UniProtKB/TrEMBL annotation:
Protein name: Two component transcriptional regulator, LuxR family
Pfam families according to UniProt: GerE, Response_reg
Domain of life: Bacteria
Keyword DNA-binding: yes
Keywords carried by this UniProt record: DNA-binding, Phosphoprotein, Transcription, Transcription regulation, Two-component regulatory system
Entry's Gene Ontology molecular function annotations: DNA binding
GO biological process, one term: phosphorelay signal transduction system
TM region positions: none
Provenance organism: Methylomagnum ishizawai
SMART domains: HTH_LUXR, REC
CDD domains for this protein: LuxR_C_like, REC_FixJ
């Protein structure tokens, strides 16, 4: 997986530079943008990291950028930071999916701790997405009959009942079970069922 980057969007040059120095001091890559529009034009979802976002900026403000990211299906964790916090602003930011909402002044350690938390969340989400995609690729390898048997296995039906439903021998159902377990790379029935519950649903 690519290295995580902390993206900073703030129209104040001094603040951008201050954030950049702070974040780079702990060895994290930083990319800073003067506007929400510049960030949107440059960012791609395959780039892991988090976003440190000012609220009040010319043009597209921070809250609108946050909403726009969600509209585009971009799940980058966003830490909203402002020196002019109001309750409605915090509520709107959290409803729009912000990872956190911080009011200045914020200590350097508080800022770095929340950035690390956001990066950890992003890594976990991306790892889970990779796992889900791999599981669904394996699921697509099953024949229609194997998928039908699998669906009934997940519901807890024994081979004997499945065989009776399909008018097949129990031995044939057991063979289907063996084949699908191999294709799904499942070491146990419990592992397979857990994968189906977590990743087997469409959408």
């Amino acid at each position: 997986m690519k290295d995580s980057t902390v993206f900073v969007v703030d129209d104040d040059q001094d603040m951008r530079q201050s954030f950049k120095w702070l974040i780079e001091s702990v060895g994290l890559p930083v990319e800073a943008f003067v506007s929400a529009e510049d960030f949107l034009a440059a960012y791609r979802d395959d780039r892991p990291g988090c976003l440190l976002l000012d609220v009040r900026m010319p043009g597209m403000g921070g809250l609108r950028l946050l909403e726009r990211l969600r509209e585009l299906g971009l799940c980058l964790p966003v830490i909203v930071i402002t020196g002019h916090a109001e309750v409605w602003m915090a509520v709107q930011a959290m409803k729009a999916g912000a990872f956190d909402f911080l009011e200045k002044p914020v200590t350097h350690q508080q800022m770095l701790d929340r950035i690390q938390d956001a990066l950890r969340q992003d890594r976990e989400r991306r790892a889970r997405a990779v796992e889900c995609a791999a599981f669904r690729q394996r699921l697509a390898l099953l024949t229609q009959r194997e998928r039908e048997v699998l669906d009934r296995m997940v519901r807890g039906e024994p081979s004997k009942a499945i065989a009776l439903e399909f008018g097949l021998s129990e031995r044939t159902i057991e063979k289907h079970r063996e084949n699908l377990m191999h294709k799904m790379e499942a070491r146990s029935l419990a592992q397979l069922i857990r994968g189906m519950v977590e990743f087997g649903r469409e959408g």
